[in-house]
Amino acid sequence: MYICLCHGISDKKIMKLAEQYGISTIRGIRQVTPLGSQCGKCIRQAKEVLEQVTFIQ
Ligand code: FES
Asked: Which of 42, 45, 49 gets mutated to test ligand 1 (max ligand atoms within 8 A of its CB)?
């Protein structure tokens, strides 16, 4: 499922980045992707995805 429609970033992509690089914050994701840089509507949902990944680890 796409989280960031503006840049085509999916929940799987966010999870993969979080796992591969140990990223646990939106700031970290934004350093490697343009997530949230256009309309910003995806930030809240991206946070929820990150929380799920951190919860699972
Ligand atoms: Fe992510 Fe617009 S949906 S910047």
From this structure: 42
